[in-house]
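Closing statement on the geranylgeranyl diphosphate sub-project.
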Amino acid sequence: MVAVARGARTLPSGVKPETDTPPTAPEALRSPLAAIDANLGAYIDSLGLTPSLDDAVRYALLGGGKRVRPVLAWWSGVAVGGAGEATLPAGCAIELVHAFSLVHDDLPAMDDDDLRRGQPTLHVRSGEAMAILAGDAMLALAFGALRRAPGGALGALTDELLVGTNAMICGQIYDTLGGLDASLSDAAKLEAIHRSKTGALIRAACRMGGMLGGGDDDAIGRLTSYGEAIGLMFQIVDDLLDVEACHTRTGKRTGKDADAGKLTYPGVMGVDGARGEVARLGQEARAALTVFGERGSALSDLAAYLERRGT
Ligand code: GRG
């Protein structure tokens, strides 16, 4: 008899065991990171949070993460002819909302995860009450971070962050508690959930970066199309990683969604169908960038990387 390790899973049909090495992050993802991290750290330093909250927020916000959303804001600003540095208030705000969402998503009442970014989740490390409170604080601090943007942009940026955050929370409700029209097909439900839960914040990052870069309505419209395509693609890749990758690569438990009976892209359209959808959305994202010429090349590189990312 073959011994099967506790927690071992059988891979769905079409899935190859993980043998390859993940693609390296492109220069477009790496080059703004120092400025983004310094900006996040300086904002937290400026707040003088009470020590236990300061410790929890730093752990959740500064302890790892790819910074995909601030990087998207950065290059969206560049695509419309602005400076990446001008987008930092938006990147900081979005990353705080993202960090809040991960901390709350990991809680026992939601996804009940003990591992995130290869480390214990915040509630495992600091207790459930602190994880709830640190998440609450990060959501409030995100809106405060926008006050460092030029005054004239504050109203529009606040609206974008509000719309993105609210859509993310609605997507989480659909995903965990239900509420979508029962007559929708599984594929339509899945798209509605993830355009909100994962896509809305990515869309907001692109739009807010474009606004701070001084983009006009047409340019913001192109960035919106780009953000919507890569936002959905990001989730499909996440679902594929959930079945294909192991936790040492992703830094979080894998296989949980399928085990919990949740709708996933590989589950609904098969692994090959999901990969095809990733390729289609990648093309859609790149097509939205043509108007920016060379200034959109970093966003194009990011789309290509996000199609193949391994973490
Ligand atoms: C709790 C209100 C509330 C919302 C939670 C986004 C979300 C909604 C939960 C996260 C669940 C999840 C893992 C979704 C898949 C897409 C996603 C957001 C992955 C994590 O984002 P990355 O890969 O994380 O950008 P890093 O660690 O790089 O920052």
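The chain is about 65% helix and 0% strand. With this model delivered, the sub-project is considered complete and its resources will be redirected to Aim 3.
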